Design the sequence.
């Protein structure tokens, strides 16, 4: 059979082809294909070596020698080419940067701006001797309205659009219910602040949200005066916004303080001369306040002839917006990192990217 006879030129011919193919192989995969083609289990050299056994005995050693030499040369060539290709691949990888730079730490979050503002506000009031009191978000109509002198079916309830759960239970529309809850359990003198979330059935716009934070203040003792209210409110505003702030009380109506007022501060944008922040008014409304109404004392079980007190309440988002120039109340809950990370300046928040 013809395939039993090895043409003596065959090993040389294979070698020539192999050298060319291996030299031209330009990827590690292509090189591997060539290795299989010549040296694999069914490779040309392997087959050739196998057929040596079918040659006349006297020819076998010489032929075997020739083929083995070719095999060795192909092996060496494969190895050299593989090294070449490997070093070319390494050269192509761009150097990953300056190894002398310190490592980059991942960024961490920081306190939410509302958290920070609330903390700053609390610190100011704690420094004035106020302590913390809290109440439930899901509140009885009784505490949210009735005990605060909003009679049932009275139009004053329309001042706040309310989420009712049923006739008697609602999401609190203000932090003022904590006043009554606290007075029921404590005797004067008392001085509390009560921050918390409140809910109103508002159509959202840049200055209205259906949930936001308020902070209530309440001070009750035997002879608390409007002057004391003015003093504490002014001290707070100056501590928070700056010592040159001017404060004025403007008559207003709330059902549960009497007299009641809205508190304005001089605009820090224009110092009172009129600008965009204050709508050219020179003044910015900052909170509601007043002297605790005798009815509220009665609901709480206090003798209105023995005690007087003041209360105030402010929106936390509102003062945060004013202090930090934030244009839309909806940003606080939108969780947009581009907004939030501007306020991650605290050292404990770690390295911010
Ligand atoms: N609770 C009132 C509001 O939400 C604010 C306020 C609090 C007014 C305390 C007076 C005294 O509008």
Sequence:
């Amino acid at each position: 059979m013809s395939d039993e006879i090895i043409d003596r030129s065959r090993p040389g011919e294979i070698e020539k082809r192999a050298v060319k193919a291996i030299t031209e192989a330009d990827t590690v995969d292509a090189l591997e294909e060539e290795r299989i083609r010549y040296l694999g289990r069914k490779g040309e050299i392997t087959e050739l070596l196998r057929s040596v056994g079918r040659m006349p005995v006297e020819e076998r050693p010489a032929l075997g020698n020739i083929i083995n030499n070719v095999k060795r040369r192909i092996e060496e060539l494969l190895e050299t080419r593989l090294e070449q290709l490997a070093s070319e691949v390494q050269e192509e990888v761009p150097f990953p940067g300056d190894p002398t730079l310190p490592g980059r730490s991942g960024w961490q979050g920081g306190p939410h701006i509302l958290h920070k503002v609330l903390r700053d506000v609390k610190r100011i009031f704690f420094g004035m001797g106020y302590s913390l009191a809290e109440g439930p978000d899901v509140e009885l109509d009784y505490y949210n309205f009735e005990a605060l002198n909003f009679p049932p079916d009275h139009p004053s309830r329309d001042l706040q659009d309310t989420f009712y759960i049923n006739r008697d239970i609602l999401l609190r529309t203000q932090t003022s219910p904590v006043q009554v809850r606290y007075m029921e359990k404590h005797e004067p003198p008392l001085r509390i602040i009560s921050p918390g979330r409140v809910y109103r059935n508002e159509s959202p716009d840049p200055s209205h949200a259906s949930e936001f934070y308020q902070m209530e203040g309440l001070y009750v003792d035997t002879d608390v005066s409007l002057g004391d209210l003015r003093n504490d409110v002014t001290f707070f505003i100056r501590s928070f916004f700056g010592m040159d702030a001017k404060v004025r009380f403007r008559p207003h109506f709330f059902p549960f303080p009497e007299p009641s007022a809205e508190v304005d501060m001089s605009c820090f944008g224009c110092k009172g001369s009129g600008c965009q922040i204050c709508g050219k008014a020179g003044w910015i409304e900052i909170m509601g306040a007043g002297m605790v109404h005798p009815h509220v004392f009665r609901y709480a079980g206090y003798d209105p002839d023995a005690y007087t007190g003041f209360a105030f309440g402010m929106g936390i988002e509102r003062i945060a917006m004013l202090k930090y120039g934030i244009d839309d109340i909806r940003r606080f809950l939108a969780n947009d990192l581009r907004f939030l990370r501007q306020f991650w300046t605290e050292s404990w928040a770690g390295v911010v990217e």
Summary: The beta strands are 131-132, 138-140, 169-171, 190-199, 211-221, 247-252, 257-266, 283-292, 308-315. The chain has two domains: 10-92, 113-343.
